[in-house]
Design goal:
By secondary structure, the chain is of the alpha/beta class. Helix content is 36%, strand content 17%. It has a 5-stranded parallel beta sheet with strand order 7-2-1-8-9, sandwiched between helices. The longest helix is centred in the middle third of the chain and has 15 residues, at 114-128.
């Protein structure tokens, strides 16, 4: 059995993203779809005294470019600014010192593409969580399919997948029988946000995994236990 999941390589994504990786044996970074400035490929939120604060990466791209073509605009000191915001808002968090040191080391790499930068962070955090999925970029699979479903089927075929973990939002256009015809079992990845110790007042779930790491460290068992009780 080879269980795969597919998702765009987002910027320091939320905790549920890593739960989807955990459920898979092969995780495909979908970088061969069009970049959208409304997607979370180049931004996410941290928590501050006002609720949420957006961290946005400046990028260079043309309309219609795929995610794999998006270049980081490193002429702007955005890495330093993001780290300053993280430090200011989490310096009193229980695990700040260790996590912030790790983030500094991740940010020091001279990546030029958005995909490489995001994937590096996601792989590092996954490793710290002891998640052992195999990571692949869809741009390395030489895909021909154009429609969403056909693209999924082609990725599944090229990765020898027998189970596909989908996000629940895709249920509106996916048909389980279509997957059966391709010899693939369709499952839906569900993650229920849970309350953990957090700075700055009322609990906020729609934030980057950074928030969990700062407050709870690389405690993946706590995440798994939370999903057993939902």
């Amino acid at each position: 059995m080879n269980i795969i999941a597919i998702h765009q390589p987002n910027y320091i994504p939320w905790l549920g993203y890593f739960f989807k990786i955990y459920q898979s044996e092969t995780f495909v970074f979908l970088d061969t779809v069009q970049y959208s400035n409304k997607g979370m490929h180049d931004f996410h939120y941290i928590k501050n005294s006002q609720g949420r604060f957006r961290l946005k990466i400046p990028v260079q791209c043309n309309f219609g470019d795929n995610i794999q073509d998006v270049i980081l605009n490193n002429t702007i000191s955005w890495k330093e600014n993001h780290l300053k915001q993280i430090e200011y808002n989490y310096k009193k968090a229980l695990h700040f010192k260790k996590v912030f040191t790790d983030l500094n080391e991740l940010f020091i790499y001279d990546d030029t593409t958005l995909v490489n930068f995001n994937a590096r962070i996601i792989k590092f955090i996954s490793e710290k969580f002891n998640i052992t999925a195999n990571f692949i970029n869809s741009s390395d699979l030489d895909l021909d399919a154009q429609s969403k479903n056909d693209r999924i089927f082609e990725i599944c075929k090229k990765t020898n997948a027998t189970v596909y973990y989908s996000g629940t939002g895709a249920a509106v256009y996916q048909n389980e029988n279509d997957f059966k015809e391709h010899g693939i079992e369709l499952r839906y990845s569900t993650f229920t946000p849970f309350i953990y110790p957090q700075l700055w007042g009322d609990f906020e779930s729609n934030v980057s995994v950074i928030d969990y790491l700062m407050n709870c460290g690389y405690d993946w068992e706590r995440v798994l236990e939370s999903q057993k009780t939902q």
